[in-house]
Structures are given as structure tokens and as C-alpha cells.
Design brief:
247 residues; alpha/beta; binds S-adenosylmethionine; methyltransferase activity; SAM-dependent_MTases_sf; methyltransferase; Class I SAM-dependent methyltransferase; transferase
Length: 247
Amino acid sequence: MSDPRHMARFWDERAREHAEYFVDNRLDYRRGDYGPDDPEDFWAKGRRDFDVLLETVGAPAIGERDVVLDIGCGVGRLTRVAAERAAHVHALDVSAEMIDRARANLADRDDVTFHVGDGATLRPLEDDSIDVVVSLVVFQHIPDPEITYGYVREILRVLRPGGWAAFQVSDDPVIHAMDHPGPSLARRILARLRGGLPGGQDDPAWRGSAIERTRLEREIAQAGGRVERLEGAGTQYCLVLVRADAA
Ligand SMILES: C[S@@+](CC[C@H](N)C(=O)[O-])C[C@H]1O[C@@H](n2cnc3c(N)ncnc32)[C@H](O)[C@@H]1O
């Protein structure tokens, strides 16, 4: 299993390098914090991404009394949307630097608790304490799928009976292979020297890994849940709706 401390170091570096870009790499890396987009556009895209996740899997609406957990919250892009709809949000990330930025971005909210996680579990969250879990573009970056399966078991530990989770995993092993074609090495070195290309693109903590669908479904069933819907099988954007068994 990969060392979660490597993921923490990697994402801390990315946060210092250009946090917004590494949270949403549709931004133009070379053009400063928000690239050609203004900050409002960055947050509006977060809102759209959040709704696409929930709508694609047919998730129920988040209730105003719900307690939500956002795994891999980054700078708080989706956390803000969840906080507007729920009673309370727990925002967890392996990177203390990302959490610092999320805390600053959401300084206007008193209904969010931030946690620097250990990169593999949902500690310090308690059993049966969460109504809704969301996670987007996080598990696809985890270098070892065993860690992702561990997170899935953890999701079912913290969910209350009948609670639900909507999250994205990669179901496309090819995209994570080190020999997957990207810009040539020479081009990348040149661009990096000019400050034009993002760092860490060959790092296992960026490349990530894919899950196996049958194993994922087995882990969920064994941990006390069931897959209610799975969209995007075989792709990097495989979206899953999981329901924790009723008590
Ligand atoms: C591409 S960003 C996405 C952030 C956020 N989900 C969003 O959509 O705006 C990936 C985030 O996952 C976090 N992350 C990566 N590996 C993690 C792990 N093992 N446990 C928790 N968070 C992790 C990174 O620090 C980073 O903030």
C-alpha cells in the first residue's frame, strides 16, 4: 500500500504551487490564480459539478437537517454548496495546505468543521454520525486502490443507517498507466522551466489508480451497504450512489 504521508506532501506542494488549478484543472495554469476565469466562475463550476454528480446518480436532495461529509474537499469548492443546503458539513482532506485555503475561503460560514485526514481513514469522524457523503475527483488520484476500498468501508462506518453516499471513482485503468501518452518529456521540461506546466504530473499521487467494479461492489455489500446506481462504468468518471443498510 502507498504511504499516505506521500499523498499529504504531494498535495501540500500542489496547494502551494497553484491550489485552484489542481482542484479544477480546466483552469489555465499559466494565468494566475483563476486563469482566464474569474473567481465567481470557479465557484459556479463547483456548484454545477456538485449537481451533475448528484443528478447523474439520482441522489435524493440534501435535507436541511442533514450532516454532510465532503471527502477530499480541496479549497472548499463543493463544501460551500453542501453547506448552503445542509445543517452541517465536515470537510476532510489529506493536505493541511488545502484545508487552510478551504478554511479561508469559507470563513463566512460557521457550519463547517475542517479535518486534516490521515489519507486512508475518516478518523476522527464517529460511527453512524453522517447522513450524506460526497466526493469528487479524489479517489481517482489515490495511487493504490486498496486505500480507496478502505475509504469505501469507512464511508459505511460513518454513515447512519439509511444514509447515502455519492462519489466518483476511476474505472479506467489505462488512463493511470505511466506510459499513457501525454506531452513529450522534452516539451514538459521546457515548459516547466518557463513556468508553464504544472508539476507532479508523473507522480503516483497525481496519476492515481482505478478500482475494479466487482471488488468495489463486494466491499460495499460486506460493509453494510448497497450500490443503488452506478453510471460511467469503464470510465475515469464512474459515479456511484451507495445506500447504507437500514438499522
Ligand atoms: C482534484 S482535488 C478535488 C477537490 C474537491 N473535491 C473539488 O472537487 O473541488 C483532489 C483533492 O483530494 C485530496 N486528496 C488526495 N488524496 C487524498 C486522500 N488519500 N485522502 C483525502 N484527500 C485526498 C487532495 O489534497 C485534493 O485536495
